[in-house]
Amino acid sequence: MRNTYDVIVIGLGIMGASALWRVASKCTRVLGIDASSPTHSYGSSHGNSRIFRRAYWEGEKYLPLLNQSDLLWKELEELMQQKLLFRTGGIFVGHQSSHVVAGSIETARKGGIEHAVWSESETRSHFPAFNVSDGSQAVFEPGAYAISACEARLGMLNEAVHQGAIIEFGNSVTGLQTSGLGMRLSTRSGQTYSAKAVIVTAGPWIGTHLLPELERYIEPRQIPVFWFKPKTGFGNLFSSDQFPIFLYEHQDGALLYGVPSILSNEPGVKIGFHNRQQTPAAPNWKNIPVHKRYLDEISQVVGDLFPKLQRSPIQAKNCFYTLSPDESFLIGESQALKSSFFASACSGHGFKFAPAIGDALACMAVGLKPYVSLAAFSADRFYNVSPEFRECPPGSTTQSLRREKPQSRVDGAHHKE
Ligand SMILES: Cc1cc2nc3c(=O)[nH]c(=O)nc-3n(C[C@H](O)[C@H](O)[C@H](O)COP(=O)(O)OP(=O)(O)OC[C@H]3O[C@@H](n4cnc5c(N)ncnc54)[C@H](O)[C@@H]3O)c2cc1C
């Protein structure tokens, strides 16, 4: 294998897979390196499904990235000639003044996004699986969908390979330094590589060996996700053609998300808290069982909201969020290492943005202006303030929701070495 490249992408979760796909069409000598195997379950990008929605309660600053990502997801699905996007529609439920309802309406209006606002009785009649409480509202976004996550990531890697990129799994980058006009990398296996530019998309590991300047702006947290089976006779209420992706803001500020089962190997509806049940964790954390009190807590909320789901989850797993202090993204060029471009700290909601973020990183790495401005996601916003993360003592379940004010085949067996 050669050791000189135009661009090297370090870390092939969804951000790196996308960056590799986009950069492989822009230059000829491209390498992607990942510390783990093609379908590993560390980091944040594994699993069957992720939500895509554009009526983004979190704020309109995300709209340009969302709009470009929407186009690129559809392009990827066409390229792959395989169903990748499950057009379930999405509902965002809460009380009228809740962050989720008010914020989704505001972004939908500003972005000209098709939507409807429903009373509780309209919500129940459109989606009888939901037992929404009196006085609640729902924003329905017909264009929202669920992404087949693992297939999408593998599809991006395959497209990159088809365009000539080389991928190396099971080798981690242990050192990164400037060299002449470009960068030099060393790896755990003892190789060194050089490149005109590097893209660092190493998730929660980004600060450890690679870009220490980002370490203080990143907090990895473990968070559980659960699967619930329908009660006997009610499976049709929860099938992906009857049941939308959803967000539900409880009166106490807890935010629940959910996705219908879109692949046959998924044991039920996937549901989790977005802003609760988080525990700070080291990036090299290994999977541990989900705490019983978290099972009890989610069973209570799910039992009330979806009486036709079995009350106890059939499966529960711990996953990983990499948070930034304001729970938005960190994207840009390293201050310390010129020609190094990064995206991380996607704060538990980055997957849907990956095509546009990958494209922007690819543009920057080859000296082009990104199609979408990334100014709102620059790490500069933290440089002169001391970063503070939302409080999360181990075992805490009391965080409240915050709204920001004004992002060959690789299938586990065959890959180019
Ligand atoms: C349970 C759960 C549900 C989610 N749901 C949604 C959703 O519905 N919609 C949404 O938009 N987002 C969602 N997210 C968030 C989204 O999945 C993440 O933002 C996204 O996957 C982050 O991807 P990444 O590529 O930045 O990082 P990662 O997935 O962590 O990838 C980093 C990669 O870098 C590699 N690596 C690390 N160090 C090195 C090194 N030194 N050398 C080489 N390789 C290295 C790792 O092996 C890994 O493959 C969810 C996250 C979780 C955990």
Structural notes for this entry:
It is a single chain. The chain has 417 residues and is α+β, with helices and mostly antiparallel strands. Helix content is 24%, strand content 26%. It is built from 9 helices and 20 strands. The chain has helices at residues 14-24, 63-80, 99-111, 120-126, 149-162, 206-210, 292-305, 354-365, 380-383, and strands at residues 4-10, 30-34, 49-52, 85-86, 90-95, 116-118, 136-141, 145-148, 166-169, 173-179, 182-187, 192-200, 219-228, 245-249, 255-259, 269-273, 279-280, 315-323, 330-333, 340-344. The strands form 3 sheets. Strands 5, 6, 7, 13, 14, 15, 16, 17 and 18 form a 9-stranded mixed beta sheet that branches. The longest helix has 18 residues, at 63-80. The radius of gyration is 21 Å and the shape is globular. Bound molecules: flavin-adenine dinucleotide (FAD). Flavin-adenine dinucleotide (FAD) binds next to helix 1, strand 2, strand 3, helix 6 and strand 18.
What is the second-level CATH architecture?
3-Layer(bba) Sandwich
Q: pLDDT average, as an integer?
A: 91
Report the total helices: 9
Helix content: 10-25%
User: What is the CATH H-level superfamily?
Assistant: FAD/NAD(P)-binding domain
Return the structural class: alpha+beta
First-last Cα distance: 8 Å
Radius of gyration equals: 21 Å
Domain count: the total is 1
Write the CATH fold name.
FAD/NAD(P)-binding domain
The backbone outline, from C-alpha atoms, is globular
Question: Which ions and ligands are bound to the chains?
Answer: flavin-adenine dinucleotide
Question: What string gives the helices and strands in order?
Answer: EHEEHEEHEHEEHEEEEHEEEEEHEEEHH
CATH top level assignment = Alpha Beta
User: Strand-residue fraction?
Assistant: 25-35%
**Number of E-state strands:** 20
Sheet with most strands: 9 strands, mixed
List low-pLDDT spans: 393-409, 412-417
